[in-house]
Amino acid sequence: MSTPDLLLDPQLKYWVLLPISFVMVLVGLLRSNITYLLQPGPKLEEYKAIREKQFLRRAACFRQNNGVLTTEEFENRRQYLIEKLNSTEFYAKVEDPNAESTNPLSDPSTNDALMNMAKGNMMNYIPQTLIMAWVNYFFAGFVIMKLPFPLTDGFKQMLQTGIETPNLNVRYVSSISWYFVNLFGLRPIYSLLMGDANAAAELVNQQQQQQPLPNIGGPGGPKASKLFQAEAENIQILTHKSIFDGIVDRVLDQHA
Fold it and tell me: What is the pTM assigned to this prediction?
């Protein structure tokens, strides 16, 4: 026996659905701006530290993209990189083998990173907790809308939280469930409202993730000597295969 459809008050979308969405968008924008204001400014690195990281990146780029070089160019660059990687010329500071290991928590940069992480977690946790309490207090038990597409019973627990009706059609959504839907689905709205500044920030984050700079020599980070030695060993066993080998035959076969 099928369960009859519920007759929903059309005013629910004005007094429940839209207020929840509006408050979540507003709080999300405020949280993003406050988080941006709380972020510390970029710290200047020493010239030698930057040179050390860039030389490691240069060696990694050679190892990954040597196919564009001729055999002579490949050998010259490989011998040069192996020689420099086995020396201390590009070290930011020469390591003392007799020095005792330091506690990572004693490094000011580590403490700053932990503090920034704690601030970010608090900026995410506190607003969402307050909004959830507000929705539970004012809109508990409301069935606010019916989805225009069918769903399986597996979505019932997620979409009908706070409604004790086991026979209700799974397409009906409760107010607290609408809060969770907004929580995970408003990112495109934030990007649209923030405009180009947010897109630029995301692009910078993607670039940093694609080309990370290791914390070389710092407390808790890898030692420069080990990174340089590992890179030298990888280049030592590298085999060269030029992309220009047999290029004439490949072009003739493709356009014959």
Answer: 0.54
